[in-house]
Structures are given as C-alpha cells and as structure tokens.
Design goal:
The protein has about 190 residues and is an all-alpha fold. It has one domain (about 5-185). It is about 80% helix and about 0% strand. The protein is built from 8 helices and no strands. Helix 2 (about 25-40) packs antiparallel against helix 4 (about 60-100) and helix 4 (about 60-100) runs antiparallel to helix 6. The longest helix is centred in the middle third of the chain and has 41 residues, at about 60-100. The protein is elongated and about 70 Å long. It starts with a helix and ends with a helix.
C-alpha cells in the first residue's frame, strides 16, 4: 500500500478514537481538522518529511501533537474573543459599585479588567486579530524543532493550512517565529 494511503488510514483511525462529534466544540474542531488533513494534497509529503527526520515517531503521536497545538490555539482565540465582553462587564459593574459608594470593590474590578488587557497585550501583542494563528505557527515550529532538530517551515505552513483551512507559506511561518523571538529579546526580564 502507498504511504499516503497508510497515513490517511492513521488519520481515519485517530478520528474513530475521538468518537462521534456531538456538541463538544473541541471534538468538532478536531474532526474538521482531520477532515481537512485527509483531503490536503500534501498530507503524505508532510508525514514523509517528519517521519524521515524522526524515525521512531508514530503517526498517532504526530497527529495528536498537531491536534493539541490546534486545541491550544483555539482556546487562545476563544479567550481573546471573550475578553472584551468580560472587560466591559467588569467596567459596568464597577460603575454600579461607584454609584453604591463601594469604591474599593469598583477599584478592584477596574484593576482586574486592566490586568486582563495587559496580560493579553503581553502574551500576543496589541494585534489580537489572527494572533491565535500566529501562535499556532510558533508552537508548531517549536514542536517540530524539538522533535526534528530543525525548522521545517514548509511542513508548518502546510499544517497551518490544514488547521485553519486557508493558504500560507513558509515565509509567513518564519516571520511568525522570528517576531516572537524579537519580542522576547525586547522585554525586560522579571
């Protein structure tokens, strides 16, 4: 059997292990990613390149690692989408506390809202839109580097296409990885 057929069978086996996609957001996400992976024209090329650099790596471990990074990226997206509403609720609640002469509680809520915004800025920068995609590329690049001993930007680009259902290239992956390195160099140590 051709290696592509074998890898696609591994994807299908992983999909069966996940079980049926019901109302669980993460399971639905993983099923969608696995479907795109099976249909992606470079599925075989990705696995062949990774498996030749890490001979003992199982397809199931590789698929699981990529899905784990997708899940972390999706959680980041969800938090970033929800944080403005959470901050707005905290500020409205603080205004009510001010009206009720509970200034200490209002100040505590405002500090919490500011801390949430500051933490988000520190984590992903001020450009929140698309930052979960950038973080996916960074985490996947790091995972590939740790396991393969080299950056495989074309592999990460293909995995990004699979994860998000759009196109990207190796240069975008390299830029995402390098922007994180530059940002890390600028920050003061704690």
């Amino acid at each position: 059997m051709a290696p592509q057929q074998l890898f696609k069978q591994e994807i299908e086996a992983y999909r069966r292990e996940l079980g049926p996609s019901e109302d669980d957001r993460e399971i639905l996400l993983m099923h969608a990613i696995l479907d795109r992976w099976q249909e992606h024209p470079d599925a075989d090329k990705i696995w062949k390149k990774v498996s030749t650099t890490v001979p003992g790596l199982s397809a199931q471990s590789f698929i699981g690692g990529v899905l784990h990074v997708c899940e972390m990226s999706d959680r980041l997206r969800h938090v970033l989408e929800e944080s403005p509403a959470l901050v707005a609720r905290a500020r409205r609640s603080a205004e009510k506390d001010d009206d009720a002469d509970q200034y200490e509680i209002a100040a505590w809520k405002r500090r919490g809202a500011k801390t949430l915004l500051d933490d988000a800025d520190r984590l992903v920068g001020r450009k929140k839109e698309g930052s979960h995609r950038q973080e996916f590329m960074r985490m996947t690049s790091r995972m590939v580097m740790e396991n393969c001993g080299q950056y495989l930007d074309d592999v990460v680009a293909s995995l990004t296409e699979i994860a998000f259902g759009d196109t990207t290239d190796g240069r975008a992956v390299r830029d995402a990885r390098r922007s994180a390195e530059r940002r890390r160099d600028i920050r003061p140590s704690k």
